Amino acid sequence: MSPGSQLKQDARKLMLENAPKLFFVSLLFVAISAILSELTFRLPGNIDIVDFNERLAAGELPTLRLLFRNFRPMGITLAVIISLLRPILNAGFIGYCIRTKRKQETEYRDIFSGFIIFHKIILIFLLSTLFILLWSLLLIIPGIVALYKYRLAYYILIDDPRKGALQCLNESAVLMNGSKVDLLIIDISFMGWHIANILLLLLIPVPLGFPLLSIWLTPYIGITLAGFYEKRIVNFAA
């Protein structure tokens, strides 16, 4: 039996027990995520590409000075804001999944709980991204190891908001010791679902096709990973 088989089975059971509320929450989360993605896609370019191309056509060399002169500060600012909103929203949904896994009372507004501690979430996002990038400079494998090393940092913070960002990253590294491959196998087990979701999106118009599988897949993955986190806590305490 694969490491995530029982966790996935438990997740499906909890999903049915918490229907339809869980799926409405999932739909809300997916819709907001889709809006953020759409905003990113429709942002004005970070570079004034028309002026940039005209200068190149006129024989001006593609220097760093030319590149920076054509930057659009507003586009860059909006892109940064949206990129920081994603981990905050994701952390809120992680909290909702943890409470669902523990069979605690949940509310729709729980998915926005990340905004209460947004500064710590952003710090975890920035630090983990930096650490993963630095390890990736060595080789791709150390980068992947670092990615899984810090996967539980958001869970730890949501579970105890009093903890600092660096403390959450360090505790995640401890909890993930010896379990990185197990989480990788769990991630791979959802690959078929992700492919089916993409195909559904391509085959059916977006307003109909996008939420159909996502509102099932999103909490399915979320609760399964919450179960993985709970299992690691229990094993570590033992």
Describe what you observe in this structure.
The protein is an all-alpha fold and 238 residues long. The protein has one domain. It has 12 helices and no strands. The longest helix has 32 residues. About 2% of the residues have low confidence.
Q: Topology of this structure?
A:
Layout: H1 5-17, H2 21-42, H3 49-57, H4 64-69, H5 73-101, H6 118-136, H7 140-149, H8 153-159, H9 165-175, H10 180-189, H11 191-203, H12 206-237
Helix pairs in contact: 1-12, 2-5, 2-12, 5-6, 5-8, 5-12, 6-7, 6-9, 8-9, 11-12
Structural key phrases:
12 helices; mainly alpha; 238 residues
Shape: globular
Number of strands: 0
Distinct helical segment count: 12
Residue stretches low in confidence (pLDDT < 50, at least 5 long) are 46-50
Outline:
By secondary structure, this protein is mainly α. 76% of the residues lie in helices and 0% in strands.
